[in-house]
Fold RBM45 protein.
Amino acid sequence: VFIAQSRASGSHRDLEDEELTRIFVMIPKSYTEEDLREKFKMYGDIEYCSIIKNKTTGESKGLGYVRYLKPSQAAQAIEECDRSYRAILAEPKNKSSESLEHDYYINNTRQEPRGNIFPFCGQPEFCSFEKSESRIQEPVSKRLSVVSRLPFIQEQLFALFDLVPGLEYCDVQRDPHTNSGYAVIQYSTAASAIYAKYKLHGFEYPPGNRLTVVFLEDGSDSSE
């Protein structure tokens, strides 16, 4: 579905190069590029693999990219690889890996969800915001309220919010009078909840049905 929608929206070749053949994965810090290639070569022909490293120490950050020759191969890898890799389609390759954690957690949270991809933080050092930038102008917490005009299916909503690491629970409720959907989501950290809120508020799930995501007071110190 991602491939079909993206091809209908613009240049076929550009989209294949930028969005449809490269996946972003979470890996053990001990992995080499050869280890990464070995784990993902079963899904198709790999053009290249790369591991994101700390520019100061040269150590792996536990994140990497795998680029396939065909979109169908990337899609198969996302669908069939172990869930521990948390594989998703990568952002277009116009961002430097050095600014990945800053871009994913600061810049991208200011954009409207595109509906086909939302990168996430996989390491503790990624899950922080610059306090001095004061980008979050509302009280925050680790708990979110999700409202929809359509009822939710527990497993589907859990799978959606579980794309952001740290999901602790997803409690789906239904209003018997309006048949609308309501759920409470809780993450292990406020950073994960903030990211989920700004990426999924307004997200159409299913298509045509926009989600309303707001913070719920959980008694924690929002200054964290």
Q: What stands out?
A: The mean pLDDT is 76. The radius of gyration is 18 Å. Residues 53 and 59 are 5 Å apart (CA to CA). The longest strand covers residues 60-68.
